[in-house]
């Protein structure tokens, strides 16, 4: 196995660049947009605690597994798994798990780009002063004006996709570093500023209480969503980290690096939640309001403080960039794979895949307006309908994609990756890649990867059906 060389796609200049790139991938809309709104829907503290448990016991071991597979094989996910399986005298069909993961990444990108587009729209809106002095209902109405306009959403979705494809077409290992080195710390500083603002709202304790106090009766309800979101937030389960691992220098300690990225990502999520909820309560908004939560809440904060216009502008620029550095990690695995498998150039592969994602994304755009009433998986009075227009329950197009990608495919992808690394590749290879010095730490990592994570995933699935 060619594990001392670099991949045909290039390599990161140092371990630091890998940390930046992986953090750039992990920290994104998942932490700032999705985590707060899911916390709101699934009962606050009950969701937060389940999320943290899933990160530590399931997400982290899978993250280790995924990165080490990539670094071992130095190829795109599907080829990595095929070659490593063959080297271990197992079936080359293991690569199917990676293929499914890469397809899942593209499905995620399809809606990710739409929401990334919202943040672009908000850069303009906040910068122009649209939100100065607004109250809760007005902020809600401004968000509604965006989501009810398919053309406006499509415009920003297109721009976001083009920006993402542009980086990928140029090659991900070049150019990313400079952007990340400045912007990630800046995002962090602005989140702290936002936190400072939250403390002045007079509802800070209420926000904290909401996030960390839990009602045991709601723990089970949020379990599968929390596990799915742990994967989403860490960027594991589709091959993003596998391909980034493939570009990682051999000399650096993978264990420490991966733990650092997971801690940073989790910290940003908690920070975003702690900063947002006091504003939600101060404005009398509903924490369970759904995907619009951040987009309704933040303008309220920025609209009511001095310099809010400029700080808000910078904030949405950073959200957009955080989303952008995540989106590229969703596109890169399949791009690398097709470069390896076909004669097409990087540019062509990128253009074709980005176009397909863009097209699927139009379904998400429409599910907020013209297709809002198109419901799938409806169960009504004991009857189940695959599709029904205007039904009460059920999921719209965005709901279906989100459910399928985050709750089903991410955990399944993670399950295959962790089983593959811990059981198929074997102990010695794992030891060699993880390069942890302490035997006790290695034993712990292996135990988590072999037993805790795979069983944890299966138990969460089983608990869901049993409920
Ligand atoms: N983790 C990113 C976020 O939180 C999104 C993301 C990037 C992702 N790559 C991924 C999610 C791979 C799942 C799988 O915004």
UniProtKB/TrEMBL annotation:
Q: How does it sit in the membrane?
A: Multi-pass membrane protein
Q: Which GO cellular component terms, listed alphabetically, does the Swiss-Prot or TrEMBL entry include?
A: membrane
Annotated membrane-spanning segments are: 12-35, 41-65, 94-115, 155-173, 185-205, 225-247, 259-281, 301-326, 347-371, 408-426, 438-466
Keywords associated with the record: Membrane, Symport, Transmembrane, Transmembrane helix, Transport
Q: Report the CDD domains cross-referenced here.
A: SLC6sbd_Tyt1-Like (cd10336)
> Which molecular function terms from Gene Ontology are attached?
symporter activity
Enumerate the PROSITE patterns for this protein: NA_NEUROTRAN_SYMP_1, NA_NEUROTRAN_SYMP_3
Q: Mainly localized where? A: membrane
Q: Where in the cell is it found?
A: Membrane
Superkingdom is Bacteria
What NCBIfam families does the record tag this protein with? Na_transp
The record's family statement is: Belongs to the sodium:neurotransmitter symporter (SNF) (TC 2.A.22) family.
PANTHER family according to UniProt: TRANSPORTER
Q: What protein name applies here?
A: Transporter
Native species: Pseudomonas luteola
């Amino acid at each position: 196995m060619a594990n001392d060389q670099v991949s045909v796609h290039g390599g990161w200049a140092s371990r630091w660049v890998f940390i930046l790139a992986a953090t750039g991938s992990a920290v994104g809309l998942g932490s700032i947009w999705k985590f707060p709104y899911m916390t709101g829907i699934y009962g606050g503290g009950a969701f937060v605690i389940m999320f943290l448990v899933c990160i530590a016991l399931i997400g982290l071991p899978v993250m280790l597994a995924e990165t080490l597979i990539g670094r071992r094989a130095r190829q795109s996910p599907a080829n990595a798994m095929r070659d490593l399986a063959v080297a271990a005298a197992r079936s080359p069909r293991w690569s199917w798990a990676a293929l499914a993961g890469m397809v899942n990444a593209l499905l995620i990108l399809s809606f990710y780009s739409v929401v990334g587009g919202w943040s672009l729209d908000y850069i303009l809106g906040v910068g122009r002063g649209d939100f100065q002095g607004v109250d809760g209902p007005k902020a809600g109405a401004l968000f509604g004006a965006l989501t009810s306009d398919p053309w406006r959403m499509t415009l920003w979705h297109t721009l976001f996709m083009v920006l993402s494809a542009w980086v990928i077409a140029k090659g991900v290992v070049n150019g990313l570093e400079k952007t990340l080195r400045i912007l990630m710390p800046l995002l962090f500083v602005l989140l702290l500023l936002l936190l400072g603002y939250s403390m002045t709202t007079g509802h800070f304790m209420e926000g904290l209480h909401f996030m960390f106090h839990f009602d045991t009766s709601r723990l089970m309800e949020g379990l599968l969503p929390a596990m799915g979101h742990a994967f989403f937030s860490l960027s594991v389960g589709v091959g993003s980290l596998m391909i980034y691992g493939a570009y990682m220098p051999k000399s650096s300690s993978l264990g420490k690096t991966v733990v650092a990225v997971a801690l940073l990502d989790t910290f940003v999520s908690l920070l975003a939640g702690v900063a947002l909820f006091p504003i939600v309560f101060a404005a009398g908004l509903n924490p369970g309001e759904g995907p619009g939560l951040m987009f309704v809440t933040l303008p309220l904060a920025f609209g009511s403080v001095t310099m809010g216009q400029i700080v808000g502008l910078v904030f949405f620029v950073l959200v957009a960039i955080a989303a952008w550095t995540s989106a590229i990690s969703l596109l890169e695995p399949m791009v690398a794979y097709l470069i390896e498998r076909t004669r097409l150039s990087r540019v062509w592969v990128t253009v074709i895949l980005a176009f397909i994602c863009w097209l699927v994304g139009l379904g998400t755009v429409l599910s907020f307006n013209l297709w809002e009433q198109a419901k799938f998986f409806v169960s009504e009075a004991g009857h189940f309908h695959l599709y029904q227009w205007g039904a009460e329950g059920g999921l719209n197009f965005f709901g279906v994609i989100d459910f399928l990608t985050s709750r089903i495919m991410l955990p399944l992808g993670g399950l295959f990756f962790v089983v593959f690394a811990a059981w198929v590749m074997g102990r010695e290879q794992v030891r060699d890649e993880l390069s942890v010095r302490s035997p006790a730490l290695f034993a712990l990592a292996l135990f988590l990867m072999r037993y805790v994570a795979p069983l944890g995933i299966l138990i969460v699935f089983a608990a869901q059906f049993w409920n």
